[in-house]
Predict the 3D structure of the following.
Amino acid sequence: MGYFLEQAGYSYTILEAADCAGSFYTRQPRHRKLISFNKSHNWFSEADFNLRYDWNSLLTYDSALRFPDYSGELYPHADRLVEYLNDFAERFALKIEYNAKVESIARDASGDFILSCRKGGERRCRCLLMATGAVKEHIPEEIEGIELAEGYENHDINPTRFTNKRVLILGNGNSAFEVANHLSAHAATIQIYTGGRLIKHAWQSHYVGDLRAVNNTLLEMGQIKIPHLLSGAKATRIVRQDDGALRVFYEEDVPHWAVPGTMRSAAVYDHVIRATGWKYYEPSLFLARDAPAAGANGKYPTLSPMWESSQPGLFYIGAAMANNDTKTTSGFIHGFRHNIRTLFHLLEQRYHGVPLPGRTFPLTNEEELEILVLAVLTRLSTTSALFQMFGVLADALVFSPGHVDWYPELPVEYLLRQPEFGGMKDLLTITLELGFDGYPKNTDALNFIHPNDPGGGGSCVAFIHPVLRHYRSGKAVSEVHLQSGVFVRYDAPNEEFAIEFDRQKPHHVIFNMINGIVGVTGETLAVDTFTDSETGGFTPWPPELRQDAPELPQCIRTHQPDFRPDPANYL
């Protein structure tokens, strides 16, 4: 945000509590390995496209200063991120006051925010952006004696301290398993209490905050008879015994037993480590009357679609933006960097009357329609923002007689509520989305080894793919889904990479949809083509050859009640 404010020449100050930028990453993660991908070799050369796989670089107008120049590791060391962030702050001359810890925030009668700093003096502003990240650890205070547990955020990570010891870890996320991996070769046994929560794997949920494969070694060890254990137990009390060991009392609900109930017992450990996550909201920082509202569990502040809190003019940026979507990437650099750029433009519009970024395309004939369609294909093929913030950020095409205005990267919920977008006669939103919700809930993600069924009214694509939705006067009219692919590209350069990919059908689908809105030509392009004869095609099986395939994903979604699969639609 500092970069965009600086480049635009606005008056701003960044108050940093520590003596360097990114100080959180000087301490966290505890074992110093980031789980944000740093993949810089992706065949194609476009800078924006490569941000799909570079999860640490900040956004600039000229693609300057990218994180892969600091590390070639897929999972980089956290020190490299600290180095990168400080170089970024210096190179772009960001206005940062270091060692300026804010101790209280209030509002005066005029609506200005008043910030009191530890080093003295007050700061006043009309617009306050809270980029405070993980402000404190979540401590399950309902566990009596929880103070006897070591905290993930500051425990001694020297593995020899745990040699041949009994270790209990409380938690069910990446932090808990990160600790377990680090100690698995030293501890006699490691047991993880999940509190009854099932483990969510990122490869199954497609949410990068769920358990990542790089951290899940303990699961495999337990399944192949190494004495480490994953348990659904919920700790209720911790006491220290006379011999110094810790007795942990726990309970477990067992609804699946022949006689359902709750069992209670206790176990003894040498170390208990709490890895129960973070909170991104600290109400004590505000005077009570000025504190913004928080969610039910107090983890995040409650935010509007443009990330504004219940206090007008008070916005949360960075990881706290995940309050608005806990399914994509808002809680991570590769997601919230795009949210922040969008918010910058929304703030410019509100406070300075600057129009939102956009382009206007004339749209009066077939030639101009073709130019627009190719622009859409290129955009879908190269955008990082829509790719990372799938289903959350959208490009909006607003149609008027003779032209269309294209506004990039707006929150879907925001633009549908604004009369200049959602209230327009014709609005087309463009997103990239996953489609696994079109399959039974517990379908194994690893069973998607074949191309998606093009049935279900064309909406059975599971992996990330484009979705175009047409709204008229605020009402949904139609939507189309395009196929997915390895790199999710639909432009000419993709043909040299993926010869089996049919670019003609995505082109025709978009052409027909936009032409259906504006009607500049009477032509409808055929979309029932096979791949060409050189690469093959599709051969439907006669009834006698059809077979059940219960282990393969079966699409259950349809947007056409009377839809019947037509072999001509299959690619």
In short: Confidence is low (pLDDT under 50) at residues 560-571.
